């Protein structure tokens, strides 16, 4: 491939696993309830020497590839379990490593339970934006996102998101992340989320694959997740004014119009994300942990290896070569340039690895074809394409 002119895409996003435990026990969590259990053997919390090495590797990568910006995502487990002081020091060390080099955006993805005004003050001062996970109304959210003792998490998260959406912190509000449950009402879920005025919503399909199949209720139709997303799409796109951005829906529309996808869930764009675990291991995207134990490992660490070495790992290459990494079934599918085979982690099947359509294939097809019909009804696609080609 290199001889043919292909070059890896430098990493833009580094996900830092600052803490390996969580104060919630969501029943769909890939980290604790699915195949990979490596969290048990890693340090609970990332040590300063580890994040300093990670910051050095990230800055080195930005320098080598002359990047104008990179993004650090503070992740866990639950990153706020690391403590505000430690997080403050960590952020300041990363800012120092990037001083005079290039822009460093820093985002935290949290369950929100510990997101108090004190914590937000620190994050806000240090320019960290915050995304919170919430699955809709109190009842819908608490179907899956409960504490270890089974108690509700909703009240604490609701308080945190209200705080985050208040004028003084609003610019730090990155958005809401919602995992789809086809047994909930998609319109009610969407409307519960937009009450907080999130700048974006990410709808995610629960991690599954051909061994650990998507959970469908008895008697559900063939595409319950696709049907849910279609109803949410119609509610979102039918609003008289833009209420929020929904990345998955915008990506599908963008791909239909010939653009590029931005998320891992859809499209054929190269994935430029790498993970650094709390012990300094450099890994592929975390969601692969849902497939089998060790699925995300590369054997590299920030102490001994560069991020460029990770770019050579076959698992990372497979995420960057688009069409060439698709199964024969997907290559023959009329929607493959839009769907892109679906989420990579969801393609896993013992024996054929990731060379399969996603286990949500029928659901993806339902969503893509529905949005396509809607876009074609609203837009003269051929005319638009011709205009884009004339004025790229
Ligand atoms: S809809 Fe199914 S067959 Fe088509 S590209 Fe997506 S996963 Fe592959």
Describe the structure.
- With 392 residues, this protein is α/β, with parallel strands linked by helices.
- It has a single domain (13-322), classed as Aldolase class I (TIM Barrel, Alpha-Beta Barrel), CATH 3.20.20.
- It contains 15 helices and ten strands.
- The chain has helices spanning 30-33, 48-64, 84-98, 117-125, 138-144, 154-164, 186-194, 224-237, 247-256, 307-311, 314-318, 328-331, 336-339, 361-378, 381-390; strands at 13-17, 69-75, 103-110, 128-133, 173-179, 200-204, 245-246, 273-276, 281-283, 297-301.
- Strands 7-6-5-4-3-2-1-8-9-10 form a ten-stranded mixed beta sheet.
- Strand 6, helix 8 and strand 7 (245-246) form a beta-alpha-beta unit.
- Helix 2 runs parallel beside helix 3 (84-98), helix 7 packs across helix 8 (224-237) and helix 9 packs across helix 14.
- It is globular.
- The protein starts with 12 loop residues before the first strand and ends with a helix.
- Residues 329-330, 333, 335-336, 339, 341-342, 357-358, 361, 364-365 line the site of iron/sulfur cluster (SF4).
Largest sheet: 10 strands, mixed
CATH hierarchy class name = Alpha Beta
User: What class would the helix/strand composition place it in?
Assistant: alpha/beta
The rounded distance between the terminal residues' Cα atoms is: 28 Å
Please provide the ordered H/E string of secondary-structure elements.
EHHEHEHEHHEHEHEHEEEHHHHHH
Query: Taking Cα atoms only, what radius of gyration do you get, to the nearest Å?
Result: 21 Å
**Helix share of residues?**
25-40%
* Number of DSSP E strands: 10
Name of the CATH architecture: Alpha-Beta Barrel
Question: Strand order within the widest sheet?
Answer: 7-6-5-4-3-2-1-8-9-10
Q: Give the overall form.
A: globular
| Bound molecule types | iron/sulfur cluster
CATH superfamily, please?
A: Aldolase class I
